[in-house]
């Protein structure tokens, strides 16, 4: 009797807690059997012997088609970003809807939905960005949005046009607590950064490397301490995103010791890049401009330690793609060779998991279960998608990435699928890559070849 649509056979299956040899049976988009000798019951058999069978990745920190204050357009739309995500082993991504000043949240959301709907290769769920917490927004619009399933939002302590001051942070946290919404905080001290930018401009230090020297560790450490303290005062859990260094990690550890509930995230750029990359010849350093900036090797080691010992819950890309060679790109920002106009952010949704797999699992820094937790399970738990997403279990969506742990890949932007024109990881030699990816039981990529249709990805209300 054939009652399974697909059986994945002979692979080593891993979840956030266990590793086992078994076949996976799939029907109606769900995992319906974990067992042995399932091939005989299935219409389509995927042989995974010698491979790892893992939950599809969830990247909960991705920027797509977000307007920037300076009118610069991001290099990805939902089609290219989700295609790139899919080839990197992801089955769900969580981009942000940025509310522009003066625009209603409802309008913002409907605009993002019209950009995303029917144009995705992965499932998608949105966070909001709150940059203008007026009484009307906090009192009416945000509660309505949370009620409609937009249950998480990011706030910024930096960037001219996005930052909230402490009073605004407190008011926003307070509303989030009442609504049970999840708050993500970008921690950098904007006044300190502005002070340093002015000093650098006065000294005519305008090259990309000044981006890193005007956003020092102390600015992130101080803001992390403040965010954790303000959250403690309001008594809400917080997510501290894109943590880049050991001192900020220490602030999180101290906050937890005092009893605060803190979820912590780091990203590939803090593992394999350093501030020295911003010193590249000509203007090449602009390719590595993101905030917080990459730090030094001691901070890389601190981030690895945090990934291994459980200090970090989430490993996200912070994919935020801009072209390098384009009139509005990183090479010639607004026609001015000044670091402060270089758009902030780097592409990385496709390379996120291969970097952690190769540098982490294959080099013995973290084990396979930790890899699954950091790249999938904990994202689903943090943002309310678990157990439908983020694990391999009976009843969960059949979102599965089959990894060849020995496939050697040298990162070349030409082989990636995003809309940028470079990769900050160009030339990085990696071992291990996802070769076959299923989304809700549909084979999207088979042996590294696309079988998906645009629009196979769905929106996930939470
Ligand atoms: O430089 C970065 N990370 N740009 C994206 C926006 C953000 O702060 O996450
Ligand atoms: Zn049978
Ligand atoms: Zn940020
Ligand atoms: Zn970000």
Description:
InterPro entries: Amidohydro-rel, Asparaginase/glutaminase_AS1, Hydantoinase/dihydroPyrase, Metal-dep_hydrolase_composite, Metal_Hydrolase, Metallo-dep_Hydrolases_sf. Belongs to the metallo-dependent hydrolases superfamily. Hydantoinase/dihydropyrimidinase family. Belongs to the asparaginase 1 family. This is D-hydantoinase. The protein is of the alpha/beta class. It has a domain of 306 residues: TIM Barrel (Alpha-Beta Barrel). Helix content is 30%, strand content 22%. It is built from twelve helices and 20 strands. The strands form three sheets. Strands 8, 9, 10, 11, 12, 13, 14, 15 and 16 form a nine-stranded parallel sheet that branches. Helix 3 packs parallel to helix 4, helix 4 packs across helix 7 and helix 7 packs parallel to helix 8. The chain starts with a strand and ends in a 12-residue tail after the last strand. The relative contact order is 0.18. The structure holds N-(aminocarbonyl)-beta-alanine and zinc ion (3 copies). The site of N-(aminocarbonyl)-beta-alanine has 8 residues, from loops.
CATH architecture of the domain at 56-361: Alpha-Beta Barrel
> What is the CA-CA span between the terminal residues?
37 Å
Q: Which oligomerization state do the chains in this entry correspond to? A: single chain
Total helical elements:
12
Give average pLDDT, whole number. 96
Largest sheet: 9 strands, parallel
- The amount of beta strand, in percent, is 15-25%
Percent range of helical residues: 25-40%
Which ranges are low-confidence, i.e. pLDDT below 50, for 5 or more consecutive residues? Answer: none
Write the CATH homologous superfamily of the domain at 56-361.
Metal-dependent hydrolases
